[in-house]
Amino acid sequence: MDALYPRDRTDVLEIIAATGSFLFISILLLIQQPLSRNHSMCTMVSRKLYNMSQGQTVTAELARNPSQCPQKVFHKLFEGHHSLHAHSGSDSDSDSASKWEQLEELQKARSCGNFGTSETSELFLKVRQVVKKIIASSNFRIQVYHDALCCLEKNPMSGVVSPPLLGGTGVLPLTIVAPLPDLCRHLANCIVRAEHEIFLGTNFWIHSDASTLITNAIRELSKRAGEQGRKVVMKMIYDRGDPRQAWDNRLNVKEDQYVGGKVRLPAASEIPNVDLQVINFHRPIFGTFHAKFTVIDRRMALIQSSNIQDNDNLEMLSHIEGPIVDSFYDAALLSWGKPLEPPFPLLNSPVKDAPISSYGAEQNGASENGTDALPELTTKSPHYDQDLRHEARRVNGSIHPLQNETPTQAVSRHLNTTIQPDTTGDAPDSDQDPNMTPYMLLPDHEPFAMAVVNREPFGCEYSSSEQIPRSPSNPKQAPNHSSIHTPQNSAWISAINHAQRSILIQTPNMNAEPLMEPLINAARRGVIVTCYLCLGYNDAGELLPFQNGTNEMIANRLYNSLESDEEKSRLRVCYYVGKDQTRPIHNSFKKRSCHIKLMIVDQQIAIQGNGNLDTQSFFHSQEINVLIDSEMVCRAWTELINRNQNTAKYGAASAKDGCWHDPKTDEIPPGSMGPVPGRFSWAKGAIGRRCSPQTSANDGPYSVRHCIHSILTKIHNQPETYRPRDAMSRTYDQPIRDVVDYVYKYQLDEDDETIWKSARTSLLDATGCAIETAATSTTCRNFLGPMTKTTVPNGFKVPGTDHQVDTPKGAFDLGLLIRYLDHNDALGGAEWGHPSDNLGAIIPVMDWLSRASIAGEIVHRGPPLTMHTLLVALVKAYEIQGCYQMQNAFNAYGIDHVILVKLASVAVVSWILGLTEEQAIAAVSHVWMDGHPSRVYRSGANTVCRKGWAAGDAARRAVQLAFMVSQGAAGSPGALSARPFGFLERTFGDSGFVFPHAFGTWTVRNVLFKTMPVEGHAISAVEAAVLHAGLFRKKGVVDPARQIKNIYLRVTEAACMIIDKKGPLYNAADRDHCIQYVVALALLKGSPPVAVDYLDESPWAKSEELEALRGKIVVQADSGLQRDYLDLDKKSIGAGVTIYLENGAELPEILIEYPVGHARNPQTASAVQKKFFKNMSYMFSAAEISRILGAVQQPDILISDFIDLFIPFSKSKI
Prior knowledge:
Layout: H1 4-30, H2 47-54, H3 58-64, H4 70-79, H5 94-102, H6 105-111, H7 119-125, H8 140-150, E1 167-179, H9 180-192, E2 197-201, H10 209-227, E3 232-238, E4 250-252, H11 255-258, E5 274-283, E6 287-288, E7 293-296, E8 300-304, E9 313-321, H12 325-336, H13 357-360, H14 388-397, H15 407-415, E10 439-441, E11 448-452, H16 487-498, E12 502-507, H17 513-524, E13 528-533, H18 539-542, H19 551-561, H20 565-569, E14 571-575, E15 593-594, E16 598-601, E17 605-609, H21 615-619, E18 625-629, H22 631-643, H23 647-650, H24 681-691, H25 710-715, H26 734-745, H27 753-776, H28 778-781, E19 796-797, E20 804-805, H29 807-819, H30 839-854, H31 867-887, H32 899-913, H33 917-929, H34 946-966, H35 983-986, H36 1002-1006, H37 1019-1035, H38 1040-1043, E21 1044-1051, H39 1053-1059, H40 1068-1072, H41 1075-1085, H42 1104-1110, E22 1113-1117, H43 1119-1126, E23 1135-1141, E24 1146-1152, H44 1164-1176, H45 1182-1192, H46 1199-1204
Parallel strand pairs: 2-3, 3-5, 9-15, 12-13, 13-14, 21-22
Antiparallel strand pairs: 1-9, 1-10, 1-11, 2-7, 4-5, 5-6, 7-8, 8-9, 11-18, 12-16, 16-17, 17-18, 19-20, 21-23, 23-24
Helix pairs in contact: 1-24, 3-4, 8-16, 9-10, 16-17, 26-32, 26-33, 27-29, 27-31, 27-44, 29-30, 29-34, 30-32, 30-34, 31-32, 32-33, 32-34, 33-34, 37-41, 41-42
InterPro entries: MmgE/PrpD_sf (IPR036148), MmgE/PrpD_sf_1 (IPR042183), MmgE/PrpD_sf_2 (IPR042188), MmgE_PrpD (IPR005656), MmgE_PrpD_C (IPR045337), MmgE_PrpD_N (IPR045336), PLD-like_dom (IPR025202), PLipase_D/transphosphatidylase (IPR001736)
Transmembrane segments: 12-31
Protein name: PLD phosphodiesterase domain-containing protein
């Protein structure tokens, strides 16, 4: 070891000398340098800009004369003194000019794009104002395109595309979020399937497994082309930095240069049927060609985040088809920048009228998620596929566990690459549900609006072949930060500035100064700003002068710029965590990093491509990005991003310092510099750059973007220790965190109609039960309304009444109305329960928030207060309660099942209120510390009407707990596990809770809808009794009480425990929870009970016949029925009824396993509909009921408007 020290000392001296030289040269370059043309921009769409957008394109001009240089063509068309648009600021046609001036600004922007007449492009302009002061959707989508477009006025080349092609339409059949080899596999398949031409641009190309996948594909393409008698033209650009680029940015790379060394492309002799040309493009000093995109046969564009090199990155690729591909084709020609020798064969074949190739492919029934593991496409094993679906099946199938392999091990195997083959994962197998899905195929869809939002490279521009004259409009460029207003940058800033609800960013680094203030302002005005960053990605490069610092430094700065805890709660910085990990791993270890570049705003628009949100990409590098306008794609991308990593679950930074802290030790991760890197951090950056053995994604030899950990750790003694202990660093019990993770991070499948149909049915059934109760139960009505007569302005309007109450009382009242008659939905398990009880908390909170927001009383910070949000909350509350019910018998400890109403409701209400995840976790912890209701009020002679309002009480308490935490009440991390008083210590013990499956959407699809007001375990027995009663006449039974000797009920063990009652029945609550009473009643009536049959004044309550028949009923528990009752694959609720007559005859058992109301009974749908119409008819006309049914189908309807429909005789706002 001692021998190493002199070498280290020498290296450090060399580094200091090199750093000094670098700084001296940089200072010289910064003196008297010109500004970029992009240092300012216009804010209006001028007539000149419109004329540019309607003119010719570089592609069209090259089609006319392929021998021309693309750069010269662009200059002639758009930039020179004699260009077509040089003097078009006004129009000689006064009528045209007048019409132009009369257009709205955004209409002008739209007219500059090629959006056609499709509905999607019309949506670009549409402004939808939902209510007076709450705007659910706005014109920000076209505004983003407008702001990108305006950059072209002063510098048409800033977008690296002919202005007429900035906007267009396209489709997005495939998205990949996966380790780099998976992106290269798709690129290889597309290359192999090419027929005429290929353009491939990448920042970094190094001979590697990744590059070999591509070069093998080029060889295979040549072989296939030869067999078919054709030749393919392929042009490729990379950035490998060369001193000669000081006088010629684009260097032709000769074959003897690219076949050896670190490139190793195929020689011409290896690919006789592929005409390959290569250019090395770099604009010194900082104008890196950072673009990574491919255009094949002018029919598809692949926009990706990845270079071609082996690394540990998670990457993203969008496969785009349709007319917008012509825009990427034009950008490819401008990037090439030299005469095309030979030209591309398809210069004369625009994509506009061509069919979508991926839609026309024969799929042969292949599924993208097939369970059969197919051989992987590797460098040693070429397995090329015929279409996208077969590709997806092969790649997605490779993640299924092999023999003796756990789900997490399978994911680790897939994420491991040649540079880190042995990394192991520590994530529990439960984290693999939902499973990682590298390839996501979207269903066929109509083209929607897109735009290319690029930026040109900014450096010292010159090309000996181009000989473009310099002028004030085309100055010599210099290495400063004046190249600001490019389509890429303007699109980013505009999207952030116009966001109304949410921003999701994933980027390796985020330190571009112009983005900081917009992000801070977004969080201040109520937008949820989520940033997934990579821990330590190129930290050394980011520490150099003018680069603005590391991710941890930026996160700390952003949090410190926000004043209140509420504002800070809306900024959610997370560090990338691999799908198989539970903590971020510093990039210096090269084990799990993320290189995705993505921004999604309001789940409506997204920007994806090559550009990082860092200083280099913002001010200097050439980038290619796509702006899309599709809610479908945005939601799919959000789900895919979260599905394929554990960042949201484990990667949250502390709002105290912007760093990730170990939840047990509170330490920052190994390799992390923290928010204050210490003295001489700029020198550490230079050392990291000088000694890096491997260049990062955004580097060329002229770049300052290198990072290495080994020498940094030698000098990085961190004299300033900065590791405050976050309150959340105390680890909350896992079940508490899991509930909140599910509510805040789980994405429902927007395209799975079974989820939404089930949710709407559940909502209608519950509200129908509430109206039934309000209309028919005098006892219940006595409990409704304020304790002291009053009306609460903007309070919750209680359905079926004229009460308007505060939110907690509203939760009690609605919970009471839904539950009181025991007619609402139910779910069995080790614990019985009624998931719709949770609507008692959800709906009043949303109704109050909506009314108070409209009145200007509050500023809502949570999700939109619409039907869609209500259905999401319903599904998640149902699922939490359902998962806890299945295998956890709270009743064994004397605790009533409404504890789960409190649990599920407090979690979703916290989300609806806009609480942070940390606050929601605290609120959930209070549930387990709370006083828990005893089951005594459902048991034997102690059964009282409290069982009818217990759910309302739980809903009220859930709302109170969420409100208290929102006002600063702290939670208890050990509420479950603390000894000796934690909840589990007093109940389930070390075994804890048991769950049948991970949280998903199972419960809402499997609830039992009660078509009769009977305790759920008795429904099948009542249904069987009604069928028996229908046979009495045939059997000669006219006096059941005298002619029946015995009745045997074969039921579940749960039924025996809950509703098997002998002896006197004291009240209505007692009667409806007695299986003997309801079965005897059904036999005598010949129909199911109704609510009034349980009342004290009912003749059945005093019937001697019924009492005599009840005494003849024998209830027997059946282990088989109980087993099927608990089996999630069967989930029956069986009961058999056998009757023996006094004359010795036997009426054979009638067994009902799936009664009407069960998800598996085909009569359920019609029965529930009939029940709903009957219940609603107590108060409403057919027309009013029809409006309610229509409202449930409107995802954007405000909940306050929806609730108004349930107020009798009120005038609807719909």
